[in-house]
Amino acid sequence: MNTDHPTHTATRKRGPVFLTPSIEKRIRRTVLGAILITFFATALSVLVANESLEQALLDLDFQAERELVLDNARPGEILVWDTPTLKAYYVPAGVPPDSRLPALFRGFPTPFSGEVEINGATFLVTTDQVRGGQFFLAKDISPFELRETAFHRFLGLLGFLVILLGIILSRLTVRHLVAPLKQLTHQIRSTTPAAHIRRIPENHQDRELQEIALSFNRFLSELEAYVKREQSLMGLASHELRTPIAVIAGALDVLEQRGLPPAEQAPFLRIRRAVDEMAANIDTLLKLTRRKSLVERHVPIDLVRLMGEVKEDLNRHGSASAERLTVTAAAFPTVTEDPALVKMLLRNLVHNATQHTEGQVKVRINPSSVEIEDEGAGLPPAYLAYLTDPLTDAAELLAFSGLGLFLVTLICERLGWTLQAEAPAGQGTRLRLLINTGPPII
What we know:
By secondary structure, this protein is of the alpha+beta class.
């Protein structure tokens, strides 16, 4: 048996649950993203519109202030206007600026327009040529700045509330949208293999979920029909084979009673061994294809004693492989199962080890496992692949080794036991059968 692979386990379990993003999270992110994009687009539009409106109001206000100041100017005289919120200085053409020019306007070119911070207040300063002279105007726009800051804070608070509301709405929306899908997923996940698989309800409100449920139930019906046909075919074939096998076994008994020449003893034993093996395989197939509650009997089984019977069967068939078989018991476990299935399982494991190897075969019985170790070349690659993935096509396995190894996996599945294959330190393979010492699986 093969030594190239370290450890393989033959179990039939559900498929792995992949760590992929769920539809719930995707919908939640989509809804929240749509809300945030809408809010930020709206907020940006409001900011642009507010800035444009503020600039237009300032321009109109400045135009009105300038007209008001110039209306009070006298020809040929310098005009000085100084209030807490408005400062102006007008120099007619041909008149030089005097010392009354406020320090705020000094150093600015003409024309100029910009904001200046003075003593914590923000002034909008403009310089220009008006009526042939120089006109300086500064207006305190701190109230506008305060309103703008308050508006920005309001937008920030509104953004926080929108984000919070978006999170809540996304969760509520997703919970409402995904609840039927989660229910359908739970119903499909809770579907377990059985003689008649329970169908999932088809009365969903959404048409898409109804189609999924209908398709799944139709698949289950077709699968059940296919399994029933396969089981019926296997059961009928096995039942039909029992008669010729029984006839051959009876003829062998008659020949054995009459006595055979020594030269014919070896062929006779080979025929006897082949007939007994085929009869056991047929009985096992019949048990596996029928409902276990109808054909199985659960009784306490001493595995050490049962392994002794398996070794005795090898001796009875005159096989030299029995001399290479060593059975040691580190414990005396007892299982409550069908004796025929357990014996066939142990027999096939031991027979496979002795048939495909020429060295020693060691069987060790532990409290919760049975180990079969050989010194052969290794398990066939097809069987290793089947142990790694029980859904692998068994055609190559059956072509290589017959029903023996294939029946082992079927019996393990029926008993709820686990078969592992691992490579020990030296040459050979160790098969570990993890047994169930608890109540039988019904």
